[in-house]
Amino acid sequence: MQKKSIRAARHPKAKAAPARGVALTPKKGPTPLAPEATYLSCSPSLFTYSDSNEYALSHEIIAQDRAVEAINMGLGIRKPGYNIYVAGIQGTGKTSVIRSFLETWSSHSPLPLDWIYVYDFNDSEVPKAISLKAGEGRKLKKLMEGLVKNLKEIIPSALQSEDYENAVNAYLSASNERKSKQYAELEKLAKSMDFIIKSTRMGIETIPVVDGRPLSEKEYGKLGDPLRNSIEDRRAQLEPEVLDFARKVRAIEQETTQYVESIRNDLGQNIVGREVEPILAVYGDNEAIKTYLNEVREHILENLLDFVEEEPNSRESREELFYGPDNRDKFRKYKINVFVDNTNLNQAPVIIESNPTYYNLFGRIEKNVEHGMYLTDFTMIKPGAIHRANGGYLVLNAMDVFKTQGIWDTLKRVLKNRLGFIEDMGEQFSLLPTSGLRPTPIPLDIKVIMIGNDEVYRLLFDADEDFHKIFKIKSDFDYRMPRSKETMNAYASFVATRVKVENLMAFDRDGVAAIVEYGSRLVEDQRFLSTQFSEIKDLTIEADFLARKEQSTVVSRNHVEKALDLKFQRVNLIEEHMLSMVKFKDVLLTITGEKVGQVNGLSVYDIGDYSFGKVSRLTCTIAMTNEGIFNIERSSKLSGKIHDKGVHILSAFLNAVLAHEKGLGVTASICFEQSYGLIDGDSATVTELVCILSALSQIPVRQNVAMTGSLNQFGEVQPVGGINEKIEGFWRSTQLLDPNQSVIVLIPKQNAYNLMIHRSLRQAIQNGQLNLVPISDINEAFQMATGKPLGFLGVSEHHFPKGSALQIIETQLKKLHPKRKPHR
User: Fold this and answer.
1) Residue 741 gets which letter from DSSP?
2) CB within 8 A of 423, min separation 6: which ones?
3) Are 517 and 40 in contact (CB under 8 A)?
4) Which end of the chain is more exposed for a tag (fewer CB within 10 A), N or C?
5) Range of weakest confidence among 267-271, 451-455, 598-602, 814-818
6) Cβ distance 811 to 818 under 8 Å?
7) Which of 810, 797, 781 lies closest to 689 in space, CA to CA?
8) Cα distance between residue 341 and residue 335, in whole Å
9) Which residues, in sequence order, are CB contacts of 519 under 8 Å at separation 6+?
10) CA 105, 109, 114, 115 torsion: positive or negative?
11) CB 488 within 8 A of CB 518
12) Torsions phi, psi of 5, nearest 5?
């Protein structure tokens, strides 16, 4: 098991094989690494500041030139699709860098426009979106509120004025006189024809008169036919006169109404025009506002009586309180919904949306529940982050975007169309269509910066054809940087900056040196430092806490190292449980003597926030069957794909070396003893091959030796990950079993630069109790593990030197299978 994140990929050339027939002369085995090679210390003298508080503060972006250049290009190109995807592992300062860049870029960007929504008097379901200069939206809202307030005072007062009432009453009196005259003439005519007329709600009723007395319906029904026919004949003659009277009265009433309305309109024209003109003068250069104000003026004139207060207890008033938003507030149509208000901005907006839910991101249309009904209007349209960031920058976290269904698809549509749609998700997913508001979308000029990791980027790039069209710039943050005098001083400046920003105690030179060393430990490479500055920041805070607890005047190395120990102690409970199993011998582990077909392998457990090494006993048994290498883990479905690949490589190697012309004719069963979880990775291939060769040759393996390494088909050892954890895990296990036993760990020679082992092991290396031996091929691994030469000369060379393990194996195979052809 190994970490993939720091896995190297080196393939050194195979060494030339000696001439045929030459006996193998065992060369001197590889020598253990010197103590100073296992841990690259940082010299405090490299730093440019002293132990006093004379720190050089720095807010520069450290060793991310590639990412910075990409960000600058993405922010500089104001074209569609040039949004930025910022990739990199967590803690490399992506968000801080983006925030810093955007503060600079936004200060040099033009101030964005305000956006308002207003009532559309032609289509009430489609509110209009209008843009204004920054700060003008709030001013217009106040002006419109003042307009309505003034009209509610002025119009009733004007309509109740003496001049207006006199003019109306005079005309009404004249009209009434004309109607009375017409009525008197009709009444006179009816009387001459023995009828009287009566005005009812249904119209003019003609009642016959007999013997000077009007008849009731009952009396009329008792009349004889001759008399009724006479009455109906006279009524037929009178009816056209009645209809003519009705037409004349209606004409008089219409004329009166028109006259009264004309007087009222003239009055309204003067009042409304006087109140609206000042607003038009302010916004006359904005055609959309000019059109809107003219529509407002016409609508007010058409509904001038709305501004006259009605009796609150009237039936009409009660109905208006119940039905619809327009009736609830007759003046709501004249309100201004300041959708995006940039009054308080002095630069382009920078919105970092930490909770990008659908409505937080794309806006919403709010609703009120009244009398069991959902009521809404254009004043309840609320903006989302894309609207507030319009004209500026919007920062999103990729993982947050994909947590809620529908956000990614809507974001793509918004960025492709460059329009800020506002939709109700409830209406989208409703089975039945419903009517509602459809606000006019706002044109967008926005730069979106999405922060995520490489896995999400590759997934989107491969699975979504629109992704690369709308995120054309990738800014890749590296998790490491070269370790040099400049970068170590950058670390020192970072520590100094955190001291000031976090109000920490001063760090002395040794304290900073310990932090630099931890930076190399994070990336497991002496040649590099980590750029996960969030980890470094946390370490400075925790070390400061310990220094204050000890009442120290400065933070020194021992505080930093103790903070690291406590950090690991908080998360290493599982490791402690596993070590206790070794201590009580629940896990079988041998570190003394020699065993055939048994080797101590090293693996790494990664549990998310902590990784630790574990010793695994590998065993191999031989049987007289033809299955070749039998992987018990794979048969138990406990083997990952990479581990399976490693076993196949071993099979290919053995077949190339020992079964060039005929199969091995034996089965080598390999197993990780007392392993009950999934095993993956190829870092155990060297261990497995040594174990198989030991079982085939019956040459015992030293049990005080543990090893790790990946192997290729040519027998070359390749680097692996988690090398420090593996060594430390083996050492802790051996200390529980026999503290006085000296042990050896075989590691790939390429991993020498990855060594940044814990200080508790350095003294053991100094005393020779722990030896780290670099190996480059399977010959060195086998000889160090057994003390015997392997005799491998190359996969194309089938002669095995006398006395070598391969020559012994070949002899054994010939005894087991007499017909087997010997190697030439």
Assistant:
1) -
2) 362
3) yes
4) C
5) 814-818
6) no
7) 781
8) 15
9) 483, 491, 529, 530, 536
10) negative
11) no
12) -65, -25
Q: How far apart are CA 295 and CA 167, in angstroms?
A: 29
Q: What is the CA radius of gyration of the chain?
A: 47
3-class state of residue 788 by DSSP = coil
Cβ-based burial of 108 (10 A; exposed 0-12, middle 13-18, buried ≥19) = exposed
Q: Which of 483, 501, 502 is nearest to 491 (CA)?
A: 483
In DSSP notation, 581-613 reads: HHHTTSS----SSEETTEEEEEEEEE-SS-EEE
According to DSSP, the residues that pair with 702 across neighbouring strands are: 594
Q: Within 10 A of 168 (CB to CB), how many other CB atoms are there? A: 16
Phi, psi of 56 (to 5 degrees): -95, 100
How much is the pTM?
A: 0.78
In sequence order, what E strands does 260-370 have?
Answer: 337-340, 350-352, 364-365, 368-370
- For the beta sheet containing 611-623, the strands, ordered from the edge strand earlier in sequence to the opposite edge, are 628-631, 667-672, 611-623, 598-606, 705-707, 743-748, 770-775
> In this structure, are residues 668 and 695 in contact, taking their beta carbons and an 8 Å threshold?
yes
Element (H, E) at 155: helix 136-159
Q: Which residues, other chains included, contact 502 with Cβ-Cβ below 8 Å and sequence gap of 6+?
A: 537, 540, 541, 544
Q: For residue 627, what are the CA distances in angstroms to 622, 663, 664, 673, 711?
A: 11, 9, 9, 21, 21
First to last CA, the chain: 39
Closest CA to 698 of 809, 792, 814: 809
**155-163 LR contacts (CB < 8 Å, sep 24+):** 155/268, 155/271, 155/304, 155/307, 155/308, 156/307, 156/308, 156/309, 158/267, 158/271, 159/264, 159/267, 159/308
pLDDT at residue 15 above 60?
Answer: no
Q: What number of other Cβ atoms are within 10 A of residue 106's Cβ? A: 20
pLDDT at 198: 80
Q: Which of 173, 242, 175, 31 is nearest to 749 (CA)?
A: 31
Which DSSP helix (H) or strand (E) runs through 315? helix 315-322
Q: Residue 784 in contact with residue 31, Cβ under 8 Å?
A: no
Map tokens 């190292």 to a residue: 561
DSSP state of 170: H
Question: What is the Cα–Cα distance from 89 to 68, expressed in whole angstroms?
Answer: 16
Give the number of residues written for the chain.
Answer: 824
Q: For the residues of 546-557, what is the DSSP string, one character each?
A: HHHHTT-SSB-H
d(CA 336, CA 136): 11
Amino acid letter, residue 787: G
Q: How far apart are CA 195 and CA 182, in angstroms?
A: 16
Residues pairing with 374 in the sheet: 369
d(CA 263, CA 163): 11
Residue 533 and residue 91 in contact, taking contact as beta carbons nearer than 8 Å: yes
Give tens-digit pLDDT for 283-331: 888 999 999 999 999 999 888 888 887 655 544 444 444 444 445 578 8
Burial class (CB in 10 A: 0-12, 13-18, 19+), 748: buried
Residue 171, classified by CB atoms within 10 Å of its CB into exposed (0-12), middle (13-18) or buried (19+), is middle
Q: How far apart are CA 12 and CA 30, in angstroms?
A: 17
355 Rama sector, left if φ>0, alpha if ψ -120 to 50, beta otherwise:
beta
Nearest C-alpha neighbor of 45 from the set 495, 516, 513, 540:
513
For the beta carbon of residue 197, count every other beta carbon within 10 angstroms: 18
